[in-house]
Automatic annotation (TrEMBL):
Domain of life: Eukaryota
Protein name per Swiss-Prot or TrEMBL: Pupal cuticle protein
PANTHER family named among the record's database cross-references: CUTICLE PROTEIN, CUTICULAR PROTEIN 65AU, ISOFORM A-RELATED
Transmembrane segments annotated in the record for this chain: none
Signal peptide range in chain numbering: 1-17
Family annotation (InterPro entries): CHIT_BIND_RR_consensus (IPR031311), Cuticle_Struct_Prot (IPR050468), Insect_cuticle (IPR000618)
Keyword Endoplasmic reticulum recorded: no
Key words of the record: Cuticle, Signal
Length: 145
């Protein structure tokens, strides 16, 4: 159930990330055809898919466990530029990367220091997620360059 939710979330995010074009019956978008398509679903939940259309859209995604996925998609924007987004979708959410996407500003030193202090002496709460804190610290360190 959880893996289906992640896959569905990733597919929704992919469809929302591409620029929305107005459909005009008989227009070029309505005449797009699938040039190639492959998919594979394993009994253990692992899967992969890939497709390419005649209007320049392509996508691929792979999951080795049915819950965590990684992939990429590309499309031509209304400005004629080819856009590419690579992403992972896992327990930390949908994490896209693309040259055209905004980047997180550098983290203030006091915020990173505070999180590192918590890491050195984590709370005793059994619900505290140390892996999530480590991932956040690593992500924020990357904003520093």
């Amino acid at each position: 159930m959880y893996s289906k939710l992640i896959v569905l979330s990733a597919l929704v995010a992919i469809s929302l990330a591409a620029p929305q074009k107005r459909f005009t019956p008989g227009g070029l978008e309505s005449q797009a055809v699938i040039l190639s398509q492959d998919q594979n679903l394993e009994p253990n939940g692992a899967y992969s898919y890939r497709y390419e259309t005649s209007n320049g859209i392509s996508a691929q995604q792979t999951s080795y466990d049915g819950a965590n996925g990684a992939g990429e998609y590309s499309y031509t924007g209304p400005d004629g530029v080819q856009y590419r987004v690579a992403y992972t979708a896992d327990t930390y959410g949908f994490q896209p990367q693309g040259a055209h996407l905004p980047v997180e500003p550098p983290v203030p030193d006091h915020v990173l220091k505070g999180l590192e202090d918590i890491r050195r002496s984590p709370p005793k709460d059994p619900g505290f997620n140390l892996a999530a804190l480590d991932a956040t610290i690593a992500r924020l360190r990357n904003t520093l360059g």
